[in-house]
Design brief:
Elements lengths: L1 H16 L14 E16 L2 E21 L2 E17 L2 E6 L3 H4 L2 H10 L3 E5 L5 E6 L1 H4 L4 H13 L28 E8 L2 E12 L3 E18 L2 E18 L5 E16 L2 E17 L1
């Protein structure tokens, strides 16, 4: 009898660990979330027969205020709290800290102004897909296409993702699929917009009482043309990404995400082709304030 009870208890234990979770997110009205993304990048560029090394360290802090939350989704206001970076390359160095008034008033402050005013309000469905976006007037920024392209280029080089999301896109909170998953399950997400194709493959590493651990790989292909100082520049790049994601089991919200990215890229402008390679590590953490 004791042996039978022991076997039954073990069976129940195994069943418990084989639990399934769904992709619904658990926001709370009045919740305030802080997302910090830290990036470290090294790159090698070939220019006019010379090889140049560069490094970039950056950090962006974003705040999400949950203004409303129901079974049908949530309304969330977003603002950029702080941007910090340091860059070294081609014998030059540049740094910026949005908390410093002298930096905000400098040349780089003008470039980063639009990014710092990237305030918007979005509505998401229960799984984190964006159903509506309302951009504040202060976030609309300059109508100068070249200035916006320069901001986008600088932000990309710094590893800062500062674009305003669009209706139909997934929010930063959307990670799990819209179905139940268990340990060992895999699924694929893909998107294509504005010259960028992205394919991500996820696998459930483990599910514990408090957390969900995912492994993932990602391929990102970019093929776009931008205006830089009055010249069309063709930019192509291929990224190979490997990383892990830790989610809160109760809410489905992100706790921590890591990524290691290997990049091969070329930029063509004024008859020149500039190839480069790079390695980037990105750590993202989300916490409740």
């Amino acid at each position: 009898m004791k042996k039978t009870l022991f076997i039954a208890a073990m069976a129940l234990s195994v069943t418990g660990f084989a639990q399934k979770v769904n992709g619904k997110l658990g926001f709370s009205k009045g919740q305030k979330l802080e997302l910090i993304t830290e990036t470290k990048k090294t790159a090698t560029t070939e220019l006019m027969g010379q090889t140049m090394e560069s490094t970039v360290n950056s950090s962006i802090t974003e705040v999400f205020n949950v203004e409303d939350a129901t079974a049908n989704g949530a309304t969330i206001a977003h603002n950029v709290k702080r941007i910090v970076f340091s860059a070294n390359g081609m014998g030059n160095s540049q740094s910026f800290d949005s908390d410093k008034e002298e930096d905000r008033k400098g040349e780089m402050g003008k470039v980063m102004d639009k990014a710092l005013k990237n305030n918007y309000k979005m509505t998401v469905d229960p799984y984190g897909v964006i159903t509506a976006v309302n951009v504040n007037d202060t976030a609309k920024g300059s109508k100068n296409a070249e200035a916006e392209a320069m901001t986008e280029l600088v932000s990309t080089q710094l590893g800062l993702k500062l674009g305003t999301p669009k209706q139909g896109e997934i929010s930063v909170f959307k990670i799990l699929p819209g179905k139940e998953i268990a340990q060992g399950d895999t699924w694929t997400d893909s998107s294509s917009a504005d010259g960028q194709k992205r394919t991500t493959v996820y696998k459930v590493n483990s599910i514990t009482a408090n957390e969900i651990l995912l492994d993932y790989t990602e391929d990102i292909n970019i093929n776009t043309t931008q205006q830089i100082m009055g010249t069309d520049a063709s930019i192509k790049s291929d990224d190979k990404v490997v990383g892990q994601i830790t989610l809160d089991k109760k809410t489905g919200l992100l706790k921590r995400k890591t990524a290691t990215i290997d990049t091969k890229a070329t930029m063509e402008a004024q008859g020149m082709t500039i190839p480069s390679t790079g390695k980037t590590t990105v750590t993202t953490t989300l916490k409740t304030l």
